[in-house]
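Ticket #4471: complex job returned nothing on first submit. Input attached below:
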Amino acid sequence: MASGQPVETPQISCIAQQAIVHYQPIVDMTTGQVIGAEALARFTNPDGTIRAPGGVIEYIEQNTSDLEVFHWALFQSIASTALPILDRHPELYVSVNVPPSFIGSDRLRVIMESLELTRYARQLVCEVTERQVLTDAGRAALAIAHGMGIRIAMDDFGTGQSILKQLIGLPLDILKIDKSQVDPLMKDPTADRLLRGVVALAMAMRVKVVAEGVETRQQAFFLRAAGVDSGQGWLWSKAVSADELEQHIRAGFIDQTRWTSS
Ligand code: G
Ligand code: MN
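Support reply: We reran it on our side without changes. The output follows.
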């Protein structure tokens, strides 16, 4: 929860309207190529500098109309900054954190059509968090998004429900392993064994795996040895502007695929 005083709803709505996106690269751990990017909300300060949302999104999520304003702003920012990149790199995807309730309310389809995003559906991924129980309505919503050609990623895997029966019948394409399972990899043998179990689960389900919060080469090495396809984290890059993302796409991260820095 954000520190300080609660913020009045009209002010939140105003803040929600000003959301823009930055992009954190998702990298193929073997080749160092950028295969996708997670769109993460950022806000512009009065002096023009950019700040991370802090706890603001939790306030936005409390009110349906704020949530709608926020997603419009977010998708508008994606439409104006990412589409030229998606055109130039047809294999690249952009993944967006979207609550299933928002997809189910038909708002996603309206936004996609209004912003002419529909033809990019195959380059979009909706990330849904494992922290909240997926209701029947939520599952139906994901099926709708999948029917539009959008891929589905289970975010924060291993930190929330982890109810395996929840995965049955879900149109899942990607599992995102949470940072909390990456951090203990070199310290706790159980974490390494658990990781291998999750990779086996993903392989059995025929879904891709993305490890999140990767900060060191050693972590990347361990993850790759365990069979993880791709990673996201400060080892490669923090969330950056669309221009910087494109530079990363062109250059790749070949240096970070080497075990030693020399
Ligand atoms: O749960 P979700 O995937 O939406 O979380 C993404 C968040 O994780 C972002 O706010 C991003 O800034 C943060 N993050 C991404 N990579 C790293 C990392 O390598 N280390 C840490 N500490 N945080 C990260
Ligand atoms: Mn996410």
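The beta strands are 20-28, 34-44, 50-51, 93-97, 124-129, 151-157, 174-177, 208-212, 230-232. Closing as resolved unless it happens again.
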